[in-house]
Write the structure tokens for this entry.
Amino acid sequence: MADLLGLSARYIDEGIYEGPGSVNRVTTELSEISEDISVVEAFSHVVTFKTGDGLVLFDTSLEAFAGGIQKNLRAWSDEPVNTIAFTHGHIDHISGAGTFVKEAEENGNPRPRFVGHENVRPRFERYEMTNGYNAVINGRQFGGGSGGKNLMGGTRGGKDLVIDRFGPSEWVYPDTTFRDHLAVKVGDTVFDMNHSKGETDDHLWAWVPQHKAICAGDFLIWCFPNAGNPQKVQRYPLEWAHALRQMEMKGAELLLPAHGLPIGGKERVRTVLSDMATALETVVEQTLKLMNEGARLNDIVHSVKVPQHLLDKPYLRPTYDEPEFVVNNIWRLYGGWYDGNPANLKPATEAAVALEMASLAGGVEKLIDRARGLAEAGDMRLACHLVEMATLAAPDHKEAHGARAEIYGRRREQELSLMSKGIYGYAERESRKISDVNE
């Protein structure tokens, strides 16, 4: 067993950061946090409580990990599973549920009770309606994206996992749902379930007073909060900060996230929750101030900053999401999709604009040369604009795609967040196929 509390204490107290894999580990190993609490580290973790009347699990991870999780959990306890709480409906948290249903049936035990917010079911239904789209965007985000496959891994997982569809082979729906608050008692242990918006609109976090513990789900992921994912539905950064402040008021001595390391110690827990809330509040306050002054989205994106001393924290590094993306999500939440640029209200096609720019520049080759020059000078943002125009103006131009692959490949290497790396890497691979440039 790993000393997860000791590891997190070292990172937090000493400000040590050894890369995303050091804090978001995928081992499928079980570590005992106390006599009655364990954590199995997987694509999302499974946090388990012994209650004297069966086990209570928070999340079940991905279906592909469920067998290993079950095996290691059974080496720790042979108590039947009484209750499984879905912290929210993302597939990396709920897809292993069927394994525990099957286990109960095979052992002649009652089916576990599944607890979740009332919006979990609509989320599952939406995933079925948009299954192909979710496979595409997750292919980009996590580095796959070919042949209908979906590569899940990277910063939050640290391990590649290929699945054939978006979601489990069979959805397991919550049979006990709630809107704002639900107290669940199993044995002598009370689990105080609370709904708050954050990464999703169906998220719960639980206060377990007997253990002075908080099960935080994805409200804590040991990197900058995933409140801006550019390819996913709406996130709620201000509500997320409010939830963290509510947790902070509990005086918890143990913080159990679904990604990253558990945290022990009242002051340590308070500091982490406060720092994360402050980071989100800072982005929201700056963005809304500029929106209220009539600024365009593009100006706001380039103006809002999070203090570097916060981003340097080992639990706030922007290795998955990043503040710039959160700004876009705040604008979408409060301001709609019009970005303030009148030309973008009813725009020309991107290809038409690209053709015009190529004509003005003196040909696609001029755009290619200028894009490469900007990249060499370190202006990757502008270089990407020009090389993208070159391939839009001439979709079959091998040199243009060669330059696009080079520039996006270079930009991918320079980026810190998994989301940026995934999208730029996908673009690089697209163009390599056309340019015949070997990887």
